[in-house]
Automatic annotation (TrEMBL):
UniProt cross-references to Pfam families, sorted A to Z: MatE
Phylogenetic placement of the source organism: Bacteria, Bacillati, Bacillota, Clostridia, Lachnospirales
Organism name: Blautia argi
Protein name per Swiss-Prot or TrEMBL: Probable multidrug resistance protein NorM
CDD domains in the record: MATE_yoeA_like (cd13138)
Localization per record: Cell membrane
């Protein structure tokens, strides 16, 4: 099913399109959390620290081709909005070849440089081998993550956010079942948790690729497009590589912060691993809403429906604001019970550090909510470079302040926690200022 987002009530269209995306990413977080929950409860804090740090690393690595998929998705949405069927087919073929090549090279490199990566992350000696074993298995799932995200981006670009949800739901359920079997039943330790994730990823990745190939002939590769023209390559490069840079910069900053967190020892590593899972789960819906908003804007940008874009912006900002306020209140109020999902009650130091993190981050979710809308908007109106700028402001501030403030003994790890909302706020200010400036020059912007 394809659906045009250029018609119908704006608010209703946005929300109905975004709901399957939100549900899908919540399910994706579930199978990420399954590793953390089972490992933390049954294998101990050392295993929790190893898996948590691995999650941050994998988020950075996969952000390279995830950004390429998101950027290509913006091109697909614009072409769909324009009604350019031939150009859409050419874009699909060229984008797949491009992103597949990048993914293959990345996959080879991470296997070759696994040990230098762990050294760079300042992984403590007591969990080094455990983390290496987990990563060696989890790296085999990178091609599956590429397949799922490419076809999910394609289907969402043409207004179908339901099918990606179905395959992700199957993946999430399978991952939880396999986690319990491999870790508890077969006693495979962290390698079992990794194997469960990888097998589940292949089910969703290969499944959605086959489904799209069989169901939609228009989305199959065309022999005549295997050597795409310079124009389409330039357009894909503009969107995809800049979006990839934006995603990579964002996660590189997080990875650098992870290295700093690791230097504070296993207790802070474990607290950070659990708290970041809660953090990500809390604001994930507004991130997906931002991606849905981006598709909405891109389709209407292609269809040149300027007033509809303006109305969409107003309603998206209001929706994100209300949602983030509710989530902030919930996370702040229930910080300790949320941490207890991942950590044993007797591990009081880990609990205290995690609750402290959530009490600081949880108050400021509106900052990240608005930032996701800005990322999506600039990507949709052919200004992906501005998303990179906002990411550099947000993460640059976060990394610089984290290292600076935490170096003071009187501040310590609190400096890392406070650097995050400050970075969000500065990027939001810059993004809204530039939007007001651009709106005066172009009605569509």
């Amino acid at each position: 099913m394809q659906k045009s987002l250029t018609q119908g009530a704006v608010g209703k269209t946005l929300i109905l399109f975004s709901l399957p995306m939100i549900a899908g990413n919540l399910l994706q977080q579930l199978y990420n959390i399954a590793d953390t929950l089972i490992v933390g409860k049954f294998l101990g804090s050392g295993a929790l620290a190893a898996v948590g740090s691995s999650y941050t690393l994998m988020t950075f690595l996969t952000s390279v081709f995830l950004g390429l998929c998101m950027g290509s998705g913006a091109v697909f949405s614009i072409r769909f909005g324009e009604g350019e069927k031939e150009k859409l087919q050419e874009s699909i073929t060229a984008a797949f070849l491009l992103i597949f090549t990048v993914t293959a090279v990345l996959n080879i490199l991470v296997f070759l440089f696994i040990d230098p990566i762990l050294v760079l992350l300042q992984v403590p000696g007591e969990i080094y081998q455990m983390m290496r074993e987990y990563l060696w298995v989890i790296f085999w799932g990178i091609p599956a993550v590429f397949l799922y995200n490419f076809y999910a981006s394609l289907l969402r670009a043409v207004g179908n956010s339901v099918v990606p949800l179905v395959f992700l739901a199957a993946c999430a359920v399978l991952n939880i079942v396999l986690d319990l079997w491999f870790v508890l039943g077969l006693s495979w330790g962290v390698e079992g948790a990794a194997a469960a994730t990888v097998l589940s990823q292949y089910v969703s990745g290969v499944g959605i690729a086959l489904y799209t190939w069989i169901k939609w002939k228009d989305f199959r590769f065309r022999k005549k497009y295997l050597r795409p023209g310079k124009g389409i390559l330039k357009e894909l490069a503009q969107f995809s590589f800049l979006t990839s840079v934006q995603q990579s910069v964002m996660n590189l900053g997080i990875l650098m912060v992870q290295g700093l967190v690791n230097s504070f020892g296993t207790v802070i590593m474990a607290a950070f691993a659990a708290a970041v899972k809660i953090d990500s789960f809390a604001y994930m819906p507004v991130q997906d809403f931002g991606n849905a908003f981006s598709t909405f804007v891109a389709q209407n940008f292609g269809a040149k429906k300027e007033e509809r874009i303006r109305e969409g912006i107003r309603k998206a900002v209001l929706t994100a604001f209300v949602f983030c306020l509710v989530i902030s209140f919930g996370v702040f109020l229930f910080a300790k019970p949320l941490m207890l999902i991942f950590v044993q009650p007797q591990e009081t130091e880990i609990l205290a550090a995690g609750v402290q993190y959530l009490h600081i981050e949880g108050v400021f979710y509106c900052g990240i909510g608005f930032l996701f809308l800005l990322y999506g908007y600039y990507r949709a109106v052919k200004l992906p470079g501005m998303s990179v700028v906002l990411t550099v402001i947000s993460l640059g501030t976060r990394v610089a302040l984290a290292y600076l403030l935490s170096s003071f003994e009187s501040i310590g790890v609190l400096g890392i926690w406070w650097s995050v909302p400050i970075g969000w706020a500065l990027a939001d200010i810059a993004g809204f200022w530039y939007y007001r400036k651009m709106r005066k020059k172009s009605p569509c912007r």
